[in-house]
Write a structure and sequence with these properties.
Blueprint (H helix, E strand, L loop, with lengths): L9 H29 L12 H33 L6 H23 L13 H23 L8 H20 L12 H36 L6 H14 L15 H13 L1 H15 L3 H6 L1 H23 L2 H7 L3 H31 L6 H34 L4 H38 L17
Helix pairs in contact: 1-2, 1-3, 1-15, 2-3, 2-6, 2-13, 3-4, 4-5, 5-6, 5-7, 6-9, 6-11, 6-13, 7-9, 9-11, 11-13, 11-14, 13-14, 14-15
């Protein structure tokens, strides 16, 4: 399916450039976090650089600033392209990005100043929460009005995932951040813990995952020059993930006084996640069968294929670590940190980069500035993510087995110190990849290869 005219995609370019910039900032703050775990006193007692503030800054910047913004940018391309109609309002699209960028900046600044709701992935304070919800609302309205004027009557599965992702993201964010309680952004007792992990798990699985899978369902058939293996299978995977994923967050609370029935539901649902995940993977891998050469010849397809491998690994590990016998060793240590990195950066982040590199040439009318830079970024992210997975998993197993044998938490710290050093060193690769990606995306949009300055657009104006 051919994209629409170049002028229709200014919003997409702006989203991509914003995502690339947030990627640099988010990973740089993550590297600061890593140095805290190696040498806690290295940066002194600078209040806005203490670990308790930089850690939520890092996680929210990566989730909402980099991955979320990049995937939403791709959605602004997919919706009008798949529906064969111009976006309802480019102005509204840019407004949603301005609000999103100001929201992320405000959330980062307030966290650096110590203002926090104190709940994992939900640390942003109430005014910032409202701005996030406003952004989702504006984007959904823009897409809904676009769908209402569509020329293509068949709704391809990517459209289903995008709309569902926006609806679920709004609901999960609203309830998970207890927006009705602005003073605390929380409720009380164990119900708050259940609510917090309903959100913490859902923000990955029902915000980032649907948008990433929508991208894969669009890009893989195009790169492989082959129809999707099964449209019916894609819809089966869509409905099963929406039904199963919403109630599995409690598997993070198995060692707490959560009601037993809820623990059983969460564990059962976690294991049941094999159904939608395998449905997606089987469908896409059968579409790619015999065509891996085409996938790796296209840089965007190459990132998508890597993201699908990480999706396979993270969705094998997730259900297994929800089992109580395994969680006795793996929970509340670096194993879980490895799992989170694999889901957000390995799967969703790599897919987001694949979307940028596949779509950007189609909206600029020229190749990306440097295929070599993109390849280098691919390997930096891939090697860095593999390093994170191995180092943090090893550290987590050491911690978990030590605790299981009665060792105090502080006595395990010297044993994992070398792993924290390796983690920080590997983080340099990720930051380097982010910087290279920002340069490549910026120059692809505004300063193409062979130009001595900003490129003229079709009307001869300077961009």
């Amino acid at each position: 399916m051919l994209p629409l005219k170049e002028e229709a995609y200014g919003t997409v370019k702006a989203y991509y450039l914003s995502a690339a910039a947030w990627f640099v900032l988010g990973t740089a703050i993550g590297l600061i976090d890593a140095t805290h775990l190696v040498a806690p006193d290295l940066l002194g007692n600078i209040s806005w650089l203490v670990f308790g503030r930089t850690r939520p800054m890092h996680t929210n910047l990566v989730i909402f600033g980099f991955v979320g913004t990049a995937l939403l940018g791709s959605a602004f391309y997919l919706v009008p392209t798949l529906l064969q109609t111009p976006l309802f309002s480019e102005r509204l699209g840019r407004l949603s990005l301005w609000i999103l960028n100001l929201t992320i900046a405000a959330g980062t600044i307030t966290l650096s100043l110590g203002y926090s709701q104190g709940r994992e992935y939900a640390e942003w304070i109430w005014p910032v929460d409202l701005a996030v919800l406003l952004t989702f609302t504006l984007i959904f309205y823009n897409f809904l009005r676009t769908a209402g004027r569509r020329r293509e009557q068949t709704l391809y599965v990517s459209i289903w995932y995008i709309f569902a992702g926006l609806i679920y993201s709004f609901l999960i964010y609203f309830f998970g951040n207890a927006v009705w309680n602005p003073a605390a952004g929380a409720i009380t007792g164990m119900p708050d813990a259940v609510l917090a992990w309903f959100y913490g798990h859902g923000v990955v699985g029902l915000y980032l995952t649907p948008l990433a899978v929508a991208l894969a369902y669009y890009i893989v058939p195009l790169v492989c020059r082959s129809p999707l293996y099964s449209h019916s299978l894609s819809l089966f995977g869509f409905w099963t993930i929406l039904v199963i994923y919403t109630h599995i967050g409690t598997h993070h609370l198995l060692q707490t006084p959560v009601p037993t029935w809820l623990k059983v539901v969460a564990i059962t649902g976690s294991v049941g996640m094999f159904i939608p995940v395998l449905t997606v993977l089987i469908n896409l891998f059968l579409t790619m069968r015999g065509r891996l050469g085409l996938i790796h010849a296209e840089i965007g397809g190459k990132f998508i294929a890597a993201g699908l491998v990480w999706y396979t690994l993270v969705c094998i590990q997730g259900p297994l670590q929800s089992l109580p016998v395994i969680q006795r060793v793996t929970h509340l240590n670096n194993w879980v940190i490895a799992h989170a990195h694999m889901g957000i950066l390995g799967f969703s982040g790599t897919m987001a980069l694949g979307g940028i590199y596949f779509i950007l040439p189609r909206i600029t009318g020229r190749p990306i500035y440097s295929r070599r830079w993109a390849d280098i970024q691919y390997w930096l992210v891939l090697i860095g993510m593999a390093g994170f997975f191995m180092v943090l998993t090893a550290a987590g197993l050491i911690q978990g087995n030590g605790w299981l044998n009665g060792q105090a938490v502080y006595k395990m710290l010297p044993e994992i110190h070398v792993y924290m050093v390796l983690r920080a060193a590997i983080g340099v690769l990720i930051v380097g990849g982010a910087v290279l990606g920002l340069l490549n995306i910026y120059r692809s949009i505004y300063w193409p290869r062979g130009s001595s300055g900003p490129a003229p657009d079709r009307k001869g104006e300077t961009r």
